[in-house]
Specification:
By secondary structure, the chain is mainly beta. It is built from one helix and ten strands. A hairpin with a 6-residue loop joins β3 (36-48) and β4.
Length: 168
């Protein structure tokens, strides 16, 4: 891993810099006659937006697992919860695909791109009397996600043809 991303006192997320990481795993078990090899790469970049504490956050990730099908790793896509680590061996290492239920897609190969524009709305920093309730910061984000999980060879022409056929 390498991390140059910075977060300051009034930041709503990292504001500038890059976080990158990758994993490699080789598995040999009694159930598998061949080795299972898994690789992941995850890169996240943060650049200042148009206003103070505004952030453009970009992320790209890929994962590949090859080998004995009984022992190969499956990656899952779907859901609004992001994995905060760039070196995750979990099935949800690349799960952030908002607009779909958790674990909506799975495959031994995965590719994902996320883009966010994050900005603060208000910083009330107020509590409700002596109750243990405190409102620090309100912020919002505009985002776009794209991802795909598959198991066989990926052919973009076949994939588009299948999608068009399914729309009819």
């Amino acid at each position: 891993t390498s991390n140059t991303a910075r977060q300051y006192g009034y930041s709503i997320s990292p504001e500038d810099g890059v976080t990158v990481g990758g994993t490699a795993e080789v598995l040999h078990s009694d159930a598998a006659t061949n080795l299972v090899k898994t690789w992941t790469a995850d890169a996240r970049g943060y650049v200042p937006g148009l206003g103070a504490r505004h952030v453009v956050a970009l992320r790209g990730g890929v994962g590949i697992s090859d080998g004995e099908p009984i022992a190969a790793r499956f990656f899952h896509l779907g859901g609004a919860t992001a994995n905060t680590s760039v070196v995750s061996f979990d099935r949800d290492a690349f799960s952030l695909l908002r607009g779909f239920p958790s674990d909506a897609f799975a495959g031994t190969r995965v590719a994902i791109v996320n883009a966010d524009y994050r900005f603060p709305l208000a910083r009330p920093q107020r509590g409700a009397g002596t109750l243990p309730l405190f409102l620090h910061t309100l912020h919002a984000a505009v985002f776009a996600d794209a991802g795909h999980a598959w198991t066989d060879d990926f052919d973009i022409r076949r994939r588009l043809a299948d999608d068009i056929r399914n729309l009819r």
